[in-house]
Write the structure tokens for this entry.
Amino acid sequence: GAGVSQTPSNKVTEKGKYVELRCDPISGHTALYWYRQSLGQGPEFLIYFQGTGAADDSGLPNDRFFAVRPEGSVSTLKIQRTERGDSAVYLCASSLRGLNTEAFFGQGTRLTVV
Amino acid sequence: AQTVTQSQPEMSVQEAETVTLSCTYDTSENNYYLFWYKQPPSRQMILVIRQEAYKQQNATENRFSVNFQKAAKSFSLKISDSQLGDTAMYFCAFMKRGGSEKLVFGKGTKLTVNP
């Protein structure tokens, strides 16, 4: 596609439920990042994929958070047993690592846990 | 660990005037990039301007320019001839070259351009 696509745009879920957030990066971009942006804050790094592998998951807050990128393109961020504190905008970005340092962002998924 | 500080939570400017947004950062790295991103209400982060730390010359992109003071670890953004469409959140970000090349963001400055 022309840009990074994230679905859904908005997600409301009940506390304790499981959610999946999808990111479709720019075609050919090998690097993919997930960030979390809480209200009134800048985005915070969660996880980085180079191809299919999670090369850096140091930003994941706990083991309820997991992400995959099985074919090296689309990525899914999975959150188990959601808590109200997980409410935030989840941003995905992709880039051509090593050739161009510009990361292109999607419009994010606003997750609200009620 | 790197930190990025934006000390101005909100700023306003009249249309056609010039405004400067401040950013300081802390790092022990030598090889890094600095960025300014714009985030309108659509939530999509849009790259405004980029500075490579090894370049002494300040980056410019049309109405946007930076004042990069490496020794002081300061990276301010100047917007000239402000336009109503410049109204948005602006985030300063740091990226260390090598490794994951993840972005470390400041808390942002909300800029309002008034007609």
In short: Chain B has a mean pLDDT of 95. The longest strand of chain B covers residues 88-96. Residues 18 and 80 of chain B are 4 Å apart (CA to CA). Chain B touches chain A at residues 4, 33, 42-47, 50, 91, 93, 95, 97, 99-108 (CB under 8 Å).
